[in-house]
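Sequence in, structure out. Go.
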Amino acid sequence: MKYQQLPEAEFLVMQTIWDQEPPVSSRRVAELLDPVKGWKLQTVYTLLNRLVEKGFLTSEKHGWERFYTPVVERDSYLRQETGRFLKEFHKNSLKGFMSALVYSEGVDRNDLSELSEWLDSLEKEEVDDV
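Output:
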C-alpha cells in the first residue's frame, strides 16, 4: 500500500504513538511531546485529527478522552519513505546512497562490519533459495 508522505510534525506524532502500547490517549501523546516540542494541547489534537483523516490512525472516544491506534505500521511507512529518499536524492543509486552513508559523520568500522555481515547473509539466503 502507498502512503501519503507525512510532514515532520505529523511524523513526530506517529513516532510517539508507535513507541507506545496502543491505544494511546491524546493526553498521553501531548505529555510525551511536551518536553520535545512544548505544543499546546489543541495543536496535538489537530495533528492527531489530520492523521486520522489520512488513514494513519483510528480514533475511539472513551468518556472525555480520545484514544488512538496506528493503522499504518512503522516498518511499512519507513520502507516506503526510504525508497522515496533513495529515488529522489540518489536517483535509485544504491552505491550513491551507501557512499553518502559511509562518508557521513557517525558511521564507524563497527557499522560497516555489521552492514557487510548483513549483506553476506542476504547473499547466502538468495543462494539457498535457488
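Check: The helical segments are 8-18, 26-37, 41-53, 74-90, 94-102, 109-129. The mean pLDDT is 92.
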